[in-house]
Amino acid sequence: MPTNRRFRNVVRIGPVQVGTYYDGRGREKHTAACTAPRCGFSTDYDSRPAAELAARTHRCPVR
Ligand SMILES: [Zn+2]
């Protein structure tokens, strides 16, 4: 998960963290980011439920 953003309401779902932040234009964005070292999964979403769904359905390629 990038450290140059200030995430709020960070939750962990399996290996994936979901956090909400404001982008440079003051809009809410929601990021789902996998914490597995070599996975690299990290995607922004416009809605929190979409980000949490992505976290729940993430199938980590790294074991
Ligand atoms: Zn992963």
Automatic annotation (TrEMBL):
Stored Pfam families: SpdB
InterPro entries noted in UniProt: SpdB
Annotated protein name in UniProt: Mobile element transfer
Natural source organism: Streptomyces davaonensis (strain DSM 101723 / JCM 4913 / KCC S-0913 / 768)
